[in-house]
Amino acid sequence: MLQEVVATRYVTPLREGGSLPGIVEADDLGTYVMKFTGAGQGRKTLVAEVICGELGRRLGLRVPELVTIQLDPVIGLAEPDQEVQELLKASGGLNLGMDYLPGSLGFDPLAYQVDPAEAGKVVWFDALINNVDRSWRNPNALVWHGDLWLIDHGATMIWHHNWPGAQASAAKPYNASDHVLAPFAPDIAAAAAELAPLVTEELLTEVAAEVPDEWLAGEPGFETTDSLRRAYVEPLLARAGSIHERISIGEPTRTQPSRAPGWVTERLAPRPQATERDRGVRAEAGRNTEDGDR
What we know:
Elements: E1 4-13, E2 22-26, E3 31-35, H1 43-58, E4 66-71, H2 82-89, E5 93-99, E6 105-106, H3 116-128, E7 141-144, E8 147-150, H4 166-170, E9 174-175, H5 188-195, H6 201-208, H7 225-240, E10 247-248, H8 262-268, H9 276-293
Parallel strand pairs: 1-4, 9-10
Antiparallel strand pairs: 1-2, 2-3, 3-5, 4-5, 6-7, 7-8
Helix pairs in contact: 1-6, 3-5, 6-7
Region (Disordered): 247-294
InterPro entries: HipA_2
Organism: Streptomyces clavifer
């Protein structure tokens, strides 16, 4: 199971996301981004965060460490923001924490390059979990110490919102035209060859076991939490072997219009190599500038 810590201080809300996560300090002296059971998206968001986040970590992708956080609602009594106070009061008990990466920056495709191998792994992984929320508009990625880190996996495995249609939903293709890493020529075939064999029934059972029972209990149609865990394993296992054949990166369609605009892709295009003549012209211009300064 995930390490469990106790929240000792609520520091500040993060207002970038709709669920209003917050930074908290815990009794292990760590600092975490906490996502709340009382948020409007509900506990299934936390289930998705655990399964997909832990799966990504085991596949070698950079995902911040996850913990569960015990929250005493009394911690919110001094919070001046009424919305935050109500959220804290509604989230007593076990919540989810993600290791806070101090000094990290939001990923910007215009400022940070990703090689095709890494881009391929991320796109393949997002296709596997059907992540609909790593677009150029909302990258859900950070740059920390020069490396790309993946965050926010709550909008994944959409089939768990309608279990009767889970198998059919999991069989659908993945349109990556809108993916934030689509402009980096992701090598999806190489990623599938490396990662797909790692997604075994044993691995998926292991990551599903990380989800606390209380976030799974009472799901309609399932008598036990173990049967529900199995329902998470089966679509991912079936999807892993062939999803690379159903990933598309192309022109926007009427149902998927939000592809990165031209000014993004143009800025990302490789720049032509300077010729000897170009370098000579620039050198001459530099000498003229220096003479003028003197």
